[in-house]
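user: Please supply your own:

assistant:
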Amino acid sequence: MHRLSRFMLLGCCLSPLSLLAQETPTERSAAHVVVAKLDSLERSLDVPRIIAQLTAPSRSRDQVTARAKELMDTELMAMADDITRHPEIGFQETRSVKLLTDWLSAHGFTVTQGVAGFRTAFVARYDRGTPGPNLGVIVEYDALRGTKGNFHGDQHSAQGPVGLAAAVATAEFLTRTKTPGTVTVYGTPAEEMMPPAAKRQMNDSAVFRGADVIVRSHSSTATTRAAPGFGTCCLNIDGVRYVFSGAPAHQMMAWDGRNALTAVIRLFESIDGLRSNIRPEARIQGIIPEGGAAPNVVPDRAVADFYIRYPDEVYLAQMRQLIDDAARGAALATGTKLKIEHYGSMRDGISVATLDELGYAYAKMFGGDKVQLEPGKPQGFEETGAVSAIMPGVGISAHTSNGSFHTYEMLADATTDVGHRGFLADAQAMAALLHDFATHPEYRAAVKREFDTIRALQQEYREALKVAYPLPKVAEP
């Protein structure tokens, strides 16, 4: 009741924009000073005025978006359909990468493959760019792993062609008009294998360094955009494997061994028991990829693989401690040994209204339907958060499917009118936004001001949340 009353009080004091600024009532209440600063920033920027000015009639912008449409209609929509029909899972996308990089090479880009140690990662830089803003485009191309085989149930098959249309249309415009600037395309593999996160490792290897802005697209069940603030599409994540080691024995004399699978089962049971003491926004999702080889042999090795998720990284750390301790307890209870492998993570990125609202306006302008009027939760423009926490960018999300994410319905829509209309809107919206960023220095300054201010507030936000999640005092027995 106390938390609810504080939240209601906050709602009386701050505008609707502020109440969109973070995902949970706890985040909004504990960090209300940060949220108020976010609200003040957005008001001072007057984003609606900026969007109205940029989306006014523009002959040069229309030429860029017309070229993006032409490329989609004549070449790249067919490429998207082709990649859809030939799905390749993460780190194995060799055919898809060849299609994308060969096409970029033929259109004036120099391609470097195998960046950051990933065979199917690449960077393509426009050869004829001139000193000026470096306009980045992220493309993905990996398929989902499914019980019926690999499939593009998240429509990553179209992200590459869409990004290529925007990149080439913009690059040609810069050359033709002698506008300062260049374009770089970043090929990022294995998004659906995350964590570990390819984008995070690419970011740690300085692959994205030097970009002034980054754009990307993604499939969507509606035409929408994020609210400004800190967050991710899919919560902060720790990817953790709990590896239990036991001793083998014949199952008829199981006392001669130590059952690692029993330890894994005990861990699952312990986590279920913990759920009532963990905040309701949490998600703990686990599988057993290894549980033994034969029913008549005591399993001497078993593995539990978990995604542990929460809307912010501060409380996520508390959850990790509880679950790690539960795993240690399972090992002690079964006479087995434990190794904890933290193999990947996803953390909050930054979303900025100057980019998100412009991308949204253009997505609608170029045919995005099923328009969601209110902004969604704050989230960085790419899933790992690593890139969007250090440089400004935007994910364009026009309606591309009537099915949900990771479904066969979304796969089917990728090669029909509903997908094609959305992909075309995405490509034109990305091209329009890149045109505006290249040609309007005052817009670049507004984006930088908003991003830098929100980034500076992020640590203040983390510190505020540490106070909001006190650990209970447990008495000695």
Q: What stands out?
A: The CA atoms of residues 47 and 354 lie 6 Å apart.
